[in-house]
Amino acid sequence: MIMAYRPQLWQIAPLILLALLGAFATACSKSVATGEQSQGMPSIPVKIEVARSVAVSDTTDYVATLKSRDATILMPQVEGQITAIGVRSGDHVKRGTALMQIDPLKQQATVTSQEQAKAAAQANLAWAKQQYDRTSALAAAGVVAKQDLDQAKSALDNAQAQVSALDAQVQEQQVQLHYYRVSAPADGIVGDIPVRVGDRVTTSTVLTTIDQPGSLEAYVYVPVERSAQLKAGIPVEILDGASHVVADSHVSFISPEVDNTTQTVLIKAQIANHEDRLRHLQFIRARVVWGTRKGLTVPILAVSRLGGQYFAFVAEDQGGKLVAHQKPLRIGDIVGNDYVVLEGVKPGDKLIVSGTQYLVDGAPVAPQS
Q: Across the chain, which distance is largest between two alpha carbons, in Å?
C-alpha cells in the first residue's frame, strides 16, 4: 500500500515567509515611485487674489409695478350708446378736446321738457304777481279783506318756489346733458380705445386713458417680516432685464397697513422717467438697498457648484510650495460679477480666480502676475 506524502508545517514555513517579504518589497517600491511622481508634478499657473473685506450692500430684489402719477382712466358718467369717436390711440390732445359722444337725444328731450315746465311756471308766477299787486291795492283802499291779500301773497310765494325748483331741475338736466360729451380732462396722449361706435356703455365701462409723459411711481410690496427695516429715504434702484440700473430713487411712502391677502407692506418710490424708457403699468425689478456691511466677494468664475454645494480653491503654503485646496462656501447675493461670501473663506486667504477647471484638491500651483 502506497502512503501519500504530506509536508510538515515547519518545512513550508520558510517558503511562506519568503513570499510575503517579496510582496512587501514590491509594494514599497511602487509606493516610493508613486510618491516621487506626485512630488514631481508641474505647478499649474493660476491667478491669485487676496481676499479682502469690502463694503457690501445688503439688498433685496422685488417685482414692482410702475404707475403714472398723471394717468387718467376715462369712464362715462352716464349710460348710453356711443355715436362718435373723434380721436385715435396715440393722439396728443389738449384739455377739453372732445373724445367721444354718447347718444344725447333722450337727455335733450328731458332738458326741453323741463325748460317748458319752467316757462309755464314763470307765466304762472307773473300772473300771481299781478293778482297780488291788484289785491294789495284794493286792500289798501279797504275794498277787500286782509284774508284775500294773504291768499294772493301765498299764491305768489308758491309760484315763486315752483319756478325756483324747476330752474334747479333744468340746470341739473343740462349738467347731465354735458356728460354725454366725453372730453379730455388734461393735456396728454390717448391710450387704447377698447370701445367702438355703436357700443352701449355704462358708468363702469373703460373708454380710454389719457397719459401725461412724466414721472412714475414704483409700487413695491415688501414682506411683512422686513417691515421693521422700512424707513423713508431708503435707496431703491430700478433694474432692466440685464440687471443694469436705469433709475435711482428712494422710498417716499410706506403704507401703515398690511395687505391681508399677501401679508405684504406697500412702499412707493418716485421714478424720473428719462427718455420715456419706462411705461405706465410696466412690471419691473426694484432693488431695495437696506444698508451696507463688511463682507467678502469672490468672482463668479472662481466658484464651482457640485451637488448644490458651492466651492472655491484657496492656495495654501505646504512645505514651501503653494497647493490648491478646495473650500466649501456659503454664498449670498450677486454683486456685479461677484458672489458675496457668507462663510468658507476669510480675509487674507489667497483665492484662485483662474485656471480652476484644471485643478484638483492638493494640486501644486504657481501664481501668475
A: 186
8 A C-beta contact, residue 190 and residue 89? yes
Strand extents, DSSP E, 162-318: 181-183, 188-190, 200-201, 208-211, 216-223, 235-239, 245-254, 264-271, 283-299, 303-306, 309-318
**Which of 16-20, 51-55, 140-144, 353-357 is the least confident region?**
16-20
User: Which structural domain range is residue 253 located in?
Assistant: 61-70+213-293
The residue-averaged pLDDT of 277-293 equals 88
Q: Which CATH number do you get for residue 198?
A: 2.40.50.100
In order, the DSSP letters of 222-261 are EEGGGGGG--TT-EEEEE-TTS-EEEEEEEEEE-SS--TT
What does the block give as the cell for 334? Answer: 450677486
CA distance 171 to 165: 10
Quick check: 215 pLDDT over 90?
no
**Average pLDDT in the 339-346 region?**
88
Q: Are residues 95 and 189 in the same domain?
A: yes
**Same domain as 349, residue 310:** yes
Question: Same domain for 154 and 272?
Answer: no
Give the span between the Cα atoms of 369 and 361, in whole angstroms. Answer: 22
pLDDT the model gives residue 292: 85
pLDDT tens digits along 72-99: 899 999 999 999 999 999 899 999 999 9
Dihedral Cα 57, 48, 353, 311, nearest 10 deg = -80
Record the cell numbers describing residue 54, joined without a space. Answer: 469690502
Mark whether 332 and 287 lie in a shared domain.
no
Helix (H, G, I), strand (E, B) or coil at 167: helix
37 in a structural domain: no
**What confidence tier does 12 reach under pLDDT thresholds 50, 70, 90?**
low
Bridge partners, 85 (sequence order) = 100
- pLDDT the model gives residue 296: 86
Closest CA to 227 of 191, 193, 264, 200: 264
What residues contact 167, with CB distance under 8 A and at least 6 apart?
Answer: 118
In a domain, 28, yes or no: no
User: How many Å apart are CA 89 and CA 191, to the nearest integer?
Assistant: 5
Spatial contact of 293 and 56, defined as CB atoms under 8 Å apart: yes
What is the mean pLDDT of the segment spanning 351-369?
86
